[in-house]
Amino acid sequence: MTYRVLICEPSEIISTGLTEIIQKLPGFDVVSRLDTTEHLNERILTSDINILIINPLLLGYFERNQISQLSKEHPHLVVIALVTNLMDPSWLKSFHGTIEVNDSRLSITNKLNEIVQSNGKQEKVSDDIELSKREIDVLVAVAKGMMNKEIADQMNISIHTVISHRKNITKKTGIKSVAGLTVYAMINGLIEN
Fold first, then answer.
1. CATH classification of the domain holding 150
2. pLDDT digits (tens, 9 = 90+) for 67-109
């Protein structure tokens, strides 16, 4: 399957550079670029877009719900934030993932592949999640690819306690997949991209 990508970014330098990186990836095709959101819905429909990479600044702070609306109108659409400035992490939670303007080619490749492998179905999380210190430690370990036994050994706790923490993390965040938890940890600054 080829993923058809629309980039919505006002900077021609950034959108051209990102296009050049994505076009070299197998299974991805940048079919359209916009510098405003004016014809966004129309372009998504007419170009049969699978992935929208958009600069959240184009939406404006008070139009956060536009991403939720896009997801409702186009359930197959994966929406990725193209972060060019420091942003409120709670705002970025409404996206399926993020690409930062200073990400390397390899990082962009890995992020896109991870997001499409999870079919962009990362579970949405609420803004008022409070994980305990130990749950955060377990989340970071999971995001780093550690198995339950490795986490238990490193933290000097039982494997049953690790499983209990993981259940609590899933219950609080609503995220079930390791990939989703990894993205959540990155978005919230718990691990580096």
1. 1.10.10.10
2. 777 777 887 889 999 999 887 777 788 888 899 999 999 999 8
Identify whether 193 is part of a domain. Answer: no
Q: Can you give the length of the chain in residues? A: 193
Closest CA to 111 of 151, 120, 125: 120
pTM of the model: 0.60
What does the alpha-carbon distance between residue 53 and residue 15 come to, in Å, rounded to a whole number?
Answer: 10
User: How far is 62 from 171, CA to CA, in rounded Å?
Assistant: 29
Per residue in 104-118, pLDDT (tens digit) is: 999 998 888 888 777
Residue 97 main-chain phi, psi, to 5 deg: 180, 180
Q: Which two tokens stand for residue 16?
A: 């051209």
How many Cα atoms sit within 13 Å of 190 on the Cβ side?
21
Burial (CB count <10 Å: 0-12, 13-18, 19+), residue 115: buried
